[in-house]
């Protein structure tokens, strides 16, 4: 099993103003093939972790998922902010605010379209 703790710390700590505030939590599935990794950082470091448009956190996810795949695991990494700023327009972790939308069945009108008639081309 890869050392996810060391890998994530290696990738994130240089970016953080408060590296001691970095917290990692791991959860393995019953058959140890899936790992769910939750990362918590100081609110001041949030912009550094997400980067420009989420590129930094996506790069960390890619590195973690690649290491997991080499070990035969499936990894999911989430960044947790203990005090999220709900008024900010900054990038939010794509998993942190996902809400299940109920299935809505929409009735669509049926449109009858006549098929074109075959014409013989005489030429």
Query: For the CA atoms, what is the radius of gyration?
Result: 24 Å
Low-confidence spans: 86-99
What is the CATH-assigned architecture of the domain at 4-80? Answer: 2-Layer Sandwich
Instruction: Report the total helices.
Output: 3
Q: Give the neighbour order of strands across the main sheet.
A: 1-2-3
CATH homologous superfamily placement of the domain at 4-80:
K homology (KH) domain
Strand/helix succession:
HEEHHE
CATH domain fold name of the domain at 4-80? GMP Synthetase, Chain A, domain 3
Total strand segments = 3
pLDDT averaged residue by residue: 78
The residue fraction in helices comes out at 10-25%
Q: Oligomerization state of this entry?
A: single chain
Give the biggest sheet: 3 strands, mixed
> N- to C-terminal separation?
73 Å
Structural class: alpha+beta
Amount of beta strand: 15-25%
- CATH class designation of the domain at 4-80: Alpha Beta
Tertiary shape: elongated
